[in-house]
Amino acid sequence: MGSLYMFVQTILSYQMQPKIHSKQVFWARLLLVIWCGVSAFSMLTCSSLLYSGRFGSDVVQKLHWNPQDKGYVLHMITTAAEWSMSCSFFGFFLTYIRDFQKISLRVEANLHGLTLYDTVPCPVSNERTHLLSREF
To answer: Which stretches of the chain are DSSP H helices?
Structure first.
């Protein structure tokens, strides 16, 4: 699902350049999507070979692997590909730093009553008025 999200966002990045961000951002995102795709493909291929039944039926429940076990190499490739894919996700999300720096949000809080159940208007006129006196 994350790979699909990255792919769609990369297409949107291509359509938004150069008005929103530069071509370098698009190329960085495209490179990370390709990296993620290669990692996902190798992970799915090796894990399907590993769980095909050629290496025994206890592979599914195996928690600790030894180098002499059948399927150890495929397990290590699958594990490395999974970590590689997670690193590509992290790198992809880091490309959004500059985009989010261009956005600013401001929140205004208005108090309309003393509690959630009051129907009487609140005596406080705005959110900058102290709710408690300084005597406390």
So the answer is: 2-16, 23-50, 72-94, 97-101
Length of the chain: 136
Class of residue 18 by CB neighbours under 10 A (exposed 0-12, middle 13-18, buried 19+) = exposed
Q: Are 89 and 2 spatial neighbours (Cβ–Cβ below 8 Å)?
A: yes
pLDDT tens digits, 87-124: 999 999 999 888 888 888 888 877 666 676 766 665 55
CA dist., res. 16 & res. 10, Å (int) = 10
How many other CB atoms sit within 10 Å of the CB of residue 71? 19
Instruction: Dig out the tokens for 33 from the structure.
Output: 């999507």
Element (H, E) at 72: helix 72-94
